[in-house]
Specification:
Number of helices: 4
CATH architecture: Roll
Mean pLDDT: 76
Radius of gyration: 22 Å
Largest sheet: 5 strands, antiparallel
Structural class: alpha+beta
Number of domains: 1
Number of strands: 5
């Protein structure tokens, strides 16, 4: 066998071993949906804190409506305001209910905000986090399950603390 053929055979063998090892590892270390969901929510919280897109607070501000109304201009202003504050959010429970390709977490939460040197803690009674399952690929060839936060909603009564501001 020529030298080029040997190099090609060795390279092909190494690639085959790596692909086979990755497939075997994927089969042996299956991660359940609940674990993936909790990781997706924690990643969303981290993204919000760092000001990256796709965070939990971005989803919350995008779905915000007050008195059944939500104008696009007001939503973008609220989203920008929340991004600037970068509040710490802590969910009391991250126990998901899974319904096929959708999951929901209903939990109280605490949001800590520092504004003008004053620390304010806001208790949110009913936060609903909705996630959707996505089939993705790792390294473009290995199928992988992932969950993404698609919506975050909070009970409008949680906004009562703001009723004294803005002449409302």
């Amino acid at each position: 066998m020529a030298r080029g053929g040997k190099i090609l055979a060795v390279t092909g063998g190494v690639v085959a071993l790596l692909v086979g090892g990755k497939i075997a590892l994927g089969l042996l270390t299956k991660v359940d949906d609940k674990t993936l969901i909790v990781e997706a929510v924690k990643d969303g919280l981290k993204a919000s804190k760092e000001g990256r897109p796709g965070g939990v607070l971005e989803k919350l501000s995008a779905s915000l409506t007050v008195n059944g109304e939500g104008s696009p201009g007001a939503k973008s202003q609220i989203a920008d305001y929340i991004k600037k504050l970068k509040p710490d959010v802590e969910f009391k429970s991250l126990e998901p209910q899974v319904f096929g390709d959708e999951a929901r977490i209903e939990t109280p939460a605490t949001m800590a905000v520092s504004l003008l040197g004053m620390n304010q803690s806001i208790d949110l009674k009913n936060v609903t986090i909705t996630l959707k399952r996505e089939d993705t690929y790792e390294y473009l060839i290995f199928p992988k399950k992932a969950w993404r936060v698609s919506d975050v909603r909070v009970d409008v009564s949680a906004l009562d603390m703001f009723s004294g501001f803005g002449g409302g």
